[in-house]
Write a structure and sequence with these properties.
The structure holds two protein chains of two kinds. Chain A is α/β, with parallel strands linked by helices. Chain A is built from 13 helices and nine strands. The radius of gyration of chain A is 26 Å and the shape is globular. Chain B is globular. Classes of the chains: A alpha/beta, B alpha+beta.
């Protein structure tokens, strides 16, 4: 006869045997699967103040995009990478849902799988350092920079600069500014907002030494590129367009712009910009 | 009985503790030959006369006593070298950083098997690069790590994280591609002092692909810089403040700094560019050689943000001797315990890299512990005197070697670029130091 205590013990032992053996096995403590998720992936690179990894992955453009993604129920994780080359890899080779930014410099093949939705229209200017200003004569033609050194990020299209006899040096914005200060680079191209953000970060006391060259160099569109090869790509792109129109119409986009820029008017929504032209 | 116990305790304490004093002792009192040590003087003087190096400080200690401390040549233009001259010890910073990590290990704040991602989330979901055949539509693919990079991987350079300069040492397409990512992301080797925090750099580095699967390679690189940031994350203190409080102050390393105090600037030695054939020039600007960027003059900055666990420390021969003697004493010096005996044994007496050899500064027959290369046999090209000798070196030509069997410490500090020409000089110094043992 089993007494009460024995019955309890037996029940306990039996209950242990119902657990899967793996619950007790000493397996590898760290597996990649602990950290992996299978949500849709979106990729971008740091571009303050539009995309800012230092502020917890926020920034003006990302706030607009996140607002639309949430409103339209488009699921996806935005990854800010330190390499444009890697964003292009994930887009073209690993079926990322989208990439975010500007000047994507896609190959023809990648263009065919892209659905670009411009969000903001931005003017870009050339900048130089006061020490090099006398030798720079910018009047709107790249030829005036012949034999000068242009600083830019890896992955940007430099064909027109090469064609104009301009030398190229690569680097992040921080490096480019340092090299411009020391005369290793003669000029760079940037939106005024990005340039000012970089100066505030890296050369807050030397802002006067960096000079914006008029007239403007070009216009660029900041936006999102959906991957039409991705199972959710086309559908997400349509939903995103709808969401963008909604926040333009209901004033949400203007509210976000004003939150980040006050009443600065150097930026305008791409659609508005297009309508004004 | 009581007296016997006290006497025994005293004698026993003196067995494990080798208190040191800056004044040197006669070499023969610690079993070293004065005559043979003079050969070391001649070797250094010859290199100075031939203008291969500008100057140096050499230190040989045995049984806790400094038997040889000598300054020769120039510390700077028209300024003679002094025994307390301050040097950029560069990669000799790494054992200090490894010690900081092991202090946290001993406090139960981390395990060596912990994934780095546990403390620095940017290390989650890392990828490893695989090159694709020429003509492929994309030159590489990225595959998930089989397991996450651990603290042990960082301590032993098995993380797959590289130095940019490694493209010059062992060029191949995969390495070039990784270094191209590093360049694009503004990663530097830490031999300059960029205007950012080490955490900013490490977070970017973590998002870039690894050169190889963690644990499947031995690649000397920025792993120890990551450890420096890890100390900040886990301790909640700035890395330099942690090292100052936990290592430099207890060991009385009063002349060791991440940024030199203004009043010690005059003691900082200049760096010299040597062609190793008699042309010696004081370095005045950055030295850029392919992907290698050296900024020796950044060491004159008296403050800054960048705290490289792999390269930032400035120190003297005497201070580094105190650090090395702490290891030789199995973790304590002058009655102050920094590490436990068992931790020192774990760091210095064990091969942590399996089948790989730590051939970068040495040769086959050298393995790697937690912050040091360790000699495993005496049948290969580089011999530092015994199995179990552990040592490392610095980019501007500095080297230290600790022989636990013979209780010797050898330190050579110079400031000469480029790096590669110095191997034979270093090896001769350890050979002469070892052969001066005369008991």
């Amino acid at each position: 006869m089993l007494n009460m205590k024995s019955t309890t013990l037996l029940a306990f032992l039996l209950s242990l045997s119902t657990y899967s053996t793996s619950s007790f096995a000493t397996g590898p403590r760290v597996k990649p699967s602990i950290f992996l998720d299978d949500t849709n992936q979106l990729y971008t690179v740091n571009l303050p103040p539009f995309i800012n990894s230092k502020t917890g992955g926020r920034g003006l453009l990302l706030e607009i995009i996140n607002t639309i993604l949430k409103a339209e129920n488009i699921t996806g994780k935005i990854n800010i990478l330190p390499s444009k080359n890697m964003t292009q890899y994930y887009f073209s080779q690993e079926n990322a849902l989208a990439i975010i930014g500007h000047d994507f410099n896609f190959s023809k093949k990648t263009q065919q799988k892209s659905i670009f939705i411009p969000i903001l229209s931005v003017d870009e200017y050339y900048y130089t350092h006061a020490s090099a200003k006398q030798e720079i004569q910018w009047q709107g033609e790249l030829a005036s920079f012949k034999n000068k050194v242009f600083g830019t990020s890896k992955g940007n299209n430099i064909s027109q600069y090469k064609a104009a006899g301009i030398h190229i040096k690569y680097g992040r914005m921080h490096t480019l500014l340092q090299k411009m200060k020391t005369g290793q680079i003669d000029f760079i191209k940037s939106s005024q907002l990005s340039f000012n953000a970089a100066l505030n970060d890296y050369f807050p006391k030397e802002q006067q030494a960096f000079i914006k060259l008029e007239p403007k160099a070009s216009e660029t569109s900041l936006g999102i590129v959906f991957n039409n090869q991705h199972a959710d790509g086309k559908k997400s792109a349509e939903k995103f367009k709808t969401g963008l129109n909604k926040i333009i119409t209901n004033g949400e986009l203007t509210r976000i712009l004003q939150k980040h820029l006050g009443h600065d008017t150097q930026l305008e929504p791409y659609l508005q910009h297009k309508a004004n032209r | 009985m009581k007296i016997t116990t006290v006497l025994f305790s005293f004698l026993c304490a003196s067995c494990v503790s080798n208190p040191v004093s800056k004044p040197t002792v006669e070499p023969n009192t610690v079993g070293l030959s004065s005559a043979r040590l003079q050969r070391l003087d001649h070797l250094i003087d010859q290199h100075i006369e031939e203008k291969k190096i500008a100057g140096a400080v050499t230190l040989i200690a045995r049984k806790g006593q400094i038997a040889h401390l000598r300054a020769s040549g120039l510390a700077d233009s028209n300024k003679p070298m002094q025994t307390d001259s301050i040097f950029r010890i560069v990669s000799m910073t790494k054992p200090i950083t490894s010690t900081a990590i092991m202090l946290l290990y001993e406090q139960g704040k981390l395990l060596l098997s912990d994934p780095v991602a546990k403390y620095i989330p940017e290390f989650k979901n890392q990828k490893v690069i695989e090159m694709l055949p020429e003509g492929s539509k994309f030159p590489y693919k990225l595959v998930p790590v089989k397991r996450n990079v651990t603290i042990h991987d960082l301590l032993t350079h098995q993380s797959g994280i590289l130095y940019l300069a490694s493209t010059g040492w062992f060029p191949n397409a995969k390495r070039e591609q990784i270094v191209s990512f590093y360049r694009e992301a503004g990663i530097t080797d830490g031999f300059c002092r960029p205007d950012e925090s080490i955490g900013d750099m490490v977070k970017r580095l973590a998002k870039l692909p690894l050169y190889a699967q963690p644990g499947e390679t031995w690649e000397y690189g920025l792993s120890v810089d990551v450890l420096g940031y890890l100390v900040e994350v886990i301790s909640g203190k700035k890395f330099d403040q942690f090292v100052q409080a936990e290592i430099f102050e207890p060991l009385k390393m009063h002349d060791s700094h991440f940024y030199i105090p203004k009043h010690k600037l005059s003691r900082l030695t200049a760096d010299w560019n040597s062609n190793w054939k008699g042309s010696l020039e004081r370095v005045t600007g950055p030295l850029i050689d392919g992907d290698l960027a050296l900024c020796p003059n950044d060491a004159y900055e008296t403050s800054g943000k960048y705290l490289s666990g792999g390269a930032s420390v400035l120190s003297t021969a005497y201070d580094y001797f105190r650090f090395a003697q702490m290891f030789l004493n199995k973790g304590e010096l002058d009655g102050v315990r920094i590490l436990s005996r068992k931790t020192v044994e774990l760091m210095t007496a064990t091969n942590h890299i399996g089948k790989h050899d730590a051939t970068l500064l040495h040769s086959h027959g050298w393995k790697f512990g937690l912050g040091f290369a360790i000699q495993q046999d005496r049948s290969h090209d580089v011999d530092s005197g015994d199995k179990g000798v552990y040592e490392w070196a610095g980019y501007y030509s500095t080297r230290f070697s600790i022989n636990p069997t013979e209780e010797t410490i050898t330190i050579f500090l110079s400031q000469t670029s480029p790096f590669g020409a110095h191997f034979s000089l270093w090896d001769k110094i350890t050979a002469l130091s070892t052969s001066s043992i005369a008991d």
